[in-house]
Amino acid sequence: MIENQKIRPAQVIGPLGEPLTLDLLPPPSTTRWVVRRKAEVVAAVNGGLLSVDEACERYTLTLEEFATWQRAVDRSGMPGLRVTRIQHYKSLYERQQKF
Predict the structure, then answer these.
(1) How far apart are alpha carbons 51 and 3 in whole angstroms?
(2) What is the spatial distance between Cα 97 and Cα 93, in angstroms, rounded to a whole number?
(3) Separation of CA 78 from chain center
């Protein structure tokens, strides 16, 4: 039965290089999603602190919305999460894929 249990780290490295724990994540009631908060949730999932399902349930996100954040971080880092720059980074990524 032990093999079915998931071992979770007590902390992961956050987007700014600092330790990130469940207590330090944005509160579940968060409605204003700034770049840092989005990046913290993505880092928590990538590090195994939360599963994707847990993050979506905790923050009332759709799977598609979280996947968009994760793709943005993978492609452009934290600046890719800026709402005002989404189109810029999207077109930059598409141009890079052509070459």
Answers:
(1) 17
(2) 6
(3) 10
Tens-place pLDDT, residues 9-61: 999 999 999 999 999 999 999 999 999 999 999 999 999 999 999 999 999 99
Per-residue pLDDT tens for 61-79? 999 999 999 999 998 899 8
State residue 80 phi and psi, 5-degree precision.
-65, -15
Q: How far apart are CA 10 and CA 49, in angstroms?
A: 7
Structure token digits, residue 81: 């999460």
- CA trace torsion 45, 49, 53, 57 (10° rounding): -110
- Pairing assessment for the beta strands 19-20 and 12-13 based on DSSP bridges: antiparallel
What's at 34, amino acid-wise?
V
Give Cα 37 distance to the centre of its chain: 8
Give the pTM: 0.79
Q: CATH number of the domain at 32-99, please?
A: 1.10.10.10
- Residue at token pair 């930059």: 92
